[in-house]
C-alpha cells in the first residue's frame, strides 16, 4: 500500500471532497504509475481518502492510500508533484506492508488559526474546553443547540493565533463551527482562510500520535 | 467583503478560482491581454471545444496572454454587485475593463442577455458607440455569427466563421495600433472574417457590405493537447479529439453543417497520436471523438480500434460514436462501457426524413437497435424535432411508432430486464445559412398542440420517457436566429426587465420577455413568418462560400420530397470549396 500526505492549499481549498477524489485519480493517471483497479462492470481506481474537510479551509495533512506495487517513496513524490494541480502537492509518502485503516483510526485533528487579536483573550480562550461551548447545527430546517466542550481537547494561544485540538472522525467538531463561536463570543474575525489543519491524530495507548507515526509503524 | 470571502458563500466556488492543471504561464511578458468570455457558467464553458482551441492558440502566441471569464451563477452575480466588485478573469483576477480585448463566445441565441449581464457586472456600457477608447475592444465569435445582426450593436468587431486564425490577426492589429480604436476598426474591416458593425453599409435596415467568413486550416492550426483540466465536474468531463470539421450529411435544417463547410479532415495517424498525447496529458478516464457526425469519419473502424487499444491499456473508457454501430466489430461493442446510445432520426416518417434530408431509414434504426441490444445496451436516447416544414400529424405519430418498434425489438432480444427509451423533442427553428432559412416557424399555440398530440401517444408506450424543449424559448430562439439589428433593443430591454440565464428553464421568465417585447415595439411575427426567396435576408452580406442558389435548390428539392446524397458520395457543388479546398470536392462535382 502506498500512502501519501498532501496539502490542500491555494485554490484547491475550494474543491469539494468528491472532486478531490476525481482530481487525484487524474493526477495518478498522469504520473504513469500503475495503480490497481477494482473488478467488475465499472472498474475504478483503488484509492482511499481520509474524511472530508470543510471547503475553504487549508490543510497540510490530507491522506490518500493507493493500491500499487510502486515502491519508491521519494520518486513517488517527484512524479506526483509534476502531475498534480496547484495546491494539492504530495508532502510525504509512506509505503506500508498492508492496508492501513487511517480514516477509521483518526479521532482528533490539530488546527492553527491565524488571529493576532486572540492574544487579548488568551486566558478565556485556553479555558473554553472547561465551560459550556454551544454550537448551532441546522438539521432538517431546524436549528439544534449542542454543547460540544467534550470535543475540544486543547486550546493554546500565542501572538500569532490560536492552536486547537478538536475531535475529528466519528465524533467530530467542525473547525468552522468552533471559530464561529469564538467570533461571536470575543468579537474576533476569523475567516475560513485563516485556518489551517495541521495534523490528523490517532490515539494509541492513550497517547495521540500523528498519522505519519502510525504509518511508519506499519512499514 | 473581499472576493476571497465571497467564495465560501457561493455554490461551487471552484468555478471562479482557476488553478486547473495545465494552466499556462500567466506571468510571461506579453504585449496584449485577451479575456475569453463565455456567457454561461463554468461547467458549460469548459465543455466547449472551441473555447479550449482558442485558449490554446492565443496562449501559445508569444505576445499574448489569454485568460477566461464565464458568467457568474446568480448567487455570485448578486454577491459581486452587493460588494461592488467588478467581474474579473479567473486566472489573475483582473477586472474585465482592464483587458485589451474581451472576446465573447456566441454559442446559442438564448445566451444573448447573459452577454449584457457580464458587461453589466464588469461596469461596461452595452453598446459599442457608448464606449470610448479607454474600454477594451469588445469582440465576439462562434456559431451564432451565422447571423450576428441582433447583437451587432454591442460589439466593436464580430468574427464570422472560425476564430482560430482571425483572432490572432486582430491581436496583431491591436498590438500595432494600441488604443487607436478607429484605426483598428478600419484595418480590421479589410480582413476576411472580421465584421465591423459600425462600418456596415445599411440599406433598408440591412447591411450590404460583404464580409467573407474565416476558415481554419486544421493542418496548420494547433490543437489543445494539454487542455485545462477542471477541478470540478463539468458537462463533458473527458478528453476529446476532433476528427474533421464540417459534415458530409447535409441535413437541411442543420446550420452547423453549412456553417463549417468545406469539409476538412485530420488524418488517422494524427488522430491516433493526439489520443496518445491526450491520455498522457489529461488523466481523464474517458476519451471521446468530436465532430459533427463522427461516425462518418472515413477511417472510423480502424481508428476506433487503434484508440481503443490505447484507452484499454490506460484503463480509460472510449465513447463510441452512436450512428455507425454496425461498422464496429462485435468484440469491440461487447467490451465498450455501455452508457446510453443516442440516435437522432429527427422525424417520425420516411417522407418527412426525406424532406429534411436525414438519410436514416426505418431499417437503419431497426438494425442499429438490434445490434445495440445484442451488445448489451439498455438505454436509448432518441432525438426528434416538431414543426418541420410540411409536417403533418401522421409524421408526429410516426415518432411514437418508432419508440414502439424499438420496444418490441428489445423484448425480442432480452426478456429479462427492462429498457429505457428517452425521446427528446426539440422544436424546429429555421436557421440562417440552411435551405430552410426561408421557412415559417410554427406559433407557440401550434407547438403546444403538436407536443400534446405526441405526448398522449407516447404515454401509451411502456419504458418511454420524454423531454420537451419549451415552446416559448424556441419561439424566441427563432426570432433571434433570423433577426435584424432592431433586436438589440429587445435584448437590452429584456435584460433590464431582469431576464438572464434564459437558457436555464428555472430562470426563463416569459412574462418579463413579453413586457420587453411591448416596450421595444417589435412585432415578432415579422421574424417567424415564411420569407420570400427574392427578398434580401439580414445575413446575406456574409459570404459563407455556400451559394444562395444552392440553398434555394435544396429548399425546392425538400418541398418535392427529394433527398440529396451525402458529400461522401456526391458533390452537389455547394460552393464552399471557393473559400478553401474541400476534402470531398476534388473535381468530383456532378451537380
Ligand atoms: S448529420 Fe445532419 S444534423 Fe448531424 S451535423 Fe451532419 S448535417 Fe447536421
Ligand atoms: S464542395 Fe461539394 S463535397 Fe464539399 S461541402 Fe460542398 S457540396 Fe459537399
Mass-distribution shape of chain B = globular
CATH superfamily of the largest domain in chain B: Aldolase class I
Structural class of chain B: alpha/beta
CATH architecture of the largest domain in chain B: Alpha-Beta Barrel
Largest interface: A-B, 30 and 27 residues
Placed side by side, the strands forming the largest sheet of chain B appear as 2-1-3-4-5-6
Please report the total strand number of chain A as a whole number: 11
How many domains make up the coordinates of chain A? 2
Calculate the terminal CA-CA distance of chain B, rounded to whole Å: 66 Å
Rough outline of chain A: elongated
What is the CATH third-level topology name of the largest domain in chain B?
TIM Barrel
Individual helix count of chain B: 21
Number of domains of chain B: 2
Beta-strand content bin of chain B: 5-15%
Class from secondary-structure proportions of chain A:
alpha+beta
Helical content class of chain B: 25-40%
Number of helices of chain A: 6
Amino acid at each position: 500500500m502506498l500512502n501519501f500526505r498532501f496539502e490542500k492549499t491555494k485554490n484547491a481549498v475550494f474543491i469539494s471532497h468528491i472532486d478531490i477524489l476525481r482530481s487525484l485519480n487524474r493526477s495518478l493517471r498522469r504520473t504513469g504509475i500503475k495503480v490497481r483497479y477494482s473488478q467488475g462492470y465499472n472498474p475504478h481506481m483503488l484509492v482511499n481518502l481520509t474524511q472530508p474537510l470543510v471547503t475553504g479551509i487549508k490543510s497540510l495533512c490530507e491522506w490518500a492510500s493507493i493500491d500499487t506495487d510502486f515502491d519508491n517513496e521519494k520518486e513517488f513524490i517527484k512524479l506526483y508533484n509534476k502531475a498534480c494541480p496547484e495546491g494539492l502537492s504530495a508532502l510525504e509518502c509512506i509505503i506500508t506492508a498492508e492496508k492501513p485503516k487511517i480514516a477509521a483510526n483518526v479521532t482528533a485533528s490539530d488546527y492553527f488559526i491565524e488571529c493576532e487579536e486572540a492574544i487579548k483573550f488568551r486566558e478565556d480562550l485556553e479555558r473554553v474546553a472547561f465551560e459550556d461551548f454551544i454550537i448551532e447545527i441546522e438539521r432538517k430546517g431546524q436549528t439544534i443547540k449542542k454543547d460540544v466542550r467534550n470535543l475540544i481537547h486543547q486550546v493554546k494561544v500565542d501572538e500569532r493565533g490560536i492552536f486547537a485540538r478538536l475531535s475529528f472522525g466519528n465524533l467530530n467538531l467542525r473547525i468552522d463551527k468552533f471559530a464561529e463561536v469564538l467570533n461571536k463570543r470575543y468579537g474576533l474575525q476569523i475567516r475560513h482562510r485563516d485556518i489551517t489543519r495541521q495534523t490528523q491524530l490517532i490515539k494509541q495507548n492513550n497517547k495521540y500520535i500523528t498519522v505519519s507515526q502510525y504509518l511508519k509503524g506499519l512499514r | 467583503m473581499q472576493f476571497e470571502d465571497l467564495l465560501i458563500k457561493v455554490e461551487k466556488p471552484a468555478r471562479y478560482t482557476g488553478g486547473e492543471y495545465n494552466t499556462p504561464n500567466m506571468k510571461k511578458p506579453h504585449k496584449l491581454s485577451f479575456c475569453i468570455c463565455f456567457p454561461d457558467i463554468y461547467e458549460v464553458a469548459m465543455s466547449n471545444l472551441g473555447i479550449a482551441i482558442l485558449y490554446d492558440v492565443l496562449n501559445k502566441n508569444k505576445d499574448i496572454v489569454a485568460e477566461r471569464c464565464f458568467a457568474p451563477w446568480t448567487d455570485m452575480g448578486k454577491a459581486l454587485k452587493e460588494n461592488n466588485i467588478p467581474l474579473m478573469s479567473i486566472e489573475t483576477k483582473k477586472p474585465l475593463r482592464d483587458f485589451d480585448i474581451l472576446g465573447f463566445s456566441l454559442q446559442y441565441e438564448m445566451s444573448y442577455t447573459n452577454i449584457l449581464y457580464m458587461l453589466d457586472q464588469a461596469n461596461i456600457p452595452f453598446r459599442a458607440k457608448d464606449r470610448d477608447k479607454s474600454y477594451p475592444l469588445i469582440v465576439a465569435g462562434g456559431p451564432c455569427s451565422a447571423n450576428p445582426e441582433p447583437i451587432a450593436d454591442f460589439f466593436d468587431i464580430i468574427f464570422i466563421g472560425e476564430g482560430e486564425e482571425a483572432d490572432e490577426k486582430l491581436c496583431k492589429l491591436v498590438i500595432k495600433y494600441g488604443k487607436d480604436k478607429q484605426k483598428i476598426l478600419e484595418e480590421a474591416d479589410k480582413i476576411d472574417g472580421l465584421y465591423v458593425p459600425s462600418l456596415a453599409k445599411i440599406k433598408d435596415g440591412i447591411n450590404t457590405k460583404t464580409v467573407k467568413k474565416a476558415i481554419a486550416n486544421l493542418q496548420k492550426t494547433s490543437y489543445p493537447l494539454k487542455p485545462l483540466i477542471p477541478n470540478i465536474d463539468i458537462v463533458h468531463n473527458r478528453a476529446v479529439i476532433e476528427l474533421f470539421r464540417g459534415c458530409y450529411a447535409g441535413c437541411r435544417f442543420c446550420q452547423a453543417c453549412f456553417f463549417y463547410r468545406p469539409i476538412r479532415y485530420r488524418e488517422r495517424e494524427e488522430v491516433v497520436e493526439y489520443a496518445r498525447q491526450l491520455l498522457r496529458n489529461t488523466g481523464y478516464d474517458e476519451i471521446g471523438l468530436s465532430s459533427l457526425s463522427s461516425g462518418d469519419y472515413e477511417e472510423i473502424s480502424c481508428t476506433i480500434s487503434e484508440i481503443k487499444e490505447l484507452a484499454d491499456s490506460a484503463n480509460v473508457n472510449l465513447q463510441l460514436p452512436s450512428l455507425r454501430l454496425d461498422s464496429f466489430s462485435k468484440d469491440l461493442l461487447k467490451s465498450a462501457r455501455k452508457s446510453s446510445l443516442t440516435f437522432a432520426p429527427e422525424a417520425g416518417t420516411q417522407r418527412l426524413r426525406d424532406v429534411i434530408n436525414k438519410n436514416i431509414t426505418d431499417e437503419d434504426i431497426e438494425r442499429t437497435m438490434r445490434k445495440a441490444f445484442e451488445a448489451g445496451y439498455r438505454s436509448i436516447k432518441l432525438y426528434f424535432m416538431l414543426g418541420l416544414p410540411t409536417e403533418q400529424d401522421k409524421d408526429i405519430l410516426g415518432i411514437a411508432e418508432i419508440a414502439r418498434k424499438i420496444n418490441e425489438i428489445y423484448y425480442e432480444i432480452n426478456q429479462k430486464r427492462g429498457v429505457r427509451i428517452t425521446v427528446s423533442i426539440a422544436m424546429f427553428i429555421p436557421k440562417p445559412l440552411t435551405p430552410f432559412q426561408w421557412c415559417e416557424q410554427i406559433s407557440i399555440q401550434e407547438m403546444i398542440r403538436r407536443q400534446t398530440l405526441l405526448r398522449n401517444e407516447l404515454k401509451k408506450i411502456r419504458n418511454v420517457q420524454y423531454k420537451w424543449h419549451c415552446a416559448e424559448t424556441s419561439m424566441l430562439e427563432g426570432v433571434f436566429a433570423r433577426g435584424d439589428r432592431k433586436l438589440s433593443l429587445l435584448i437590452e430591454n429584456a435584460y433590464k426587465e431582469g431576464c438572464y440565464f434564459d437558457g436555464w428553464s428555472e430562470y426563463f421568465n416569459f412574462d418579463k420577455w413579453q413586457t420587453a417585447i411591448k416596450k421595444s415595439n417589435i412585432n415578432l411575427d415579422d421574424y417567424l413568418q415564411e420569407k420570400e426567396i427574392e427578398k434580401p435576408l439580414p445575413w446575406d452580406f456574409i459570404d459563407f462560400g455556400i451559394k444562395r442558389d444552392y440553398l434555394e435548390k435544396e429548399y425546392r428539392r425538400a418541398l418535392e420530397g427529394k433527398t440529396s446524397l451525402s458529400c461522401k458520395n456526391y458533390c452537389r457543388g455547394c460552393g464552399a470549396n471557393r473559400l478553401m479546398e474541400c476534402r470531398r470536392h476534388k473535381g468530383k462535382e456532378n451537380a
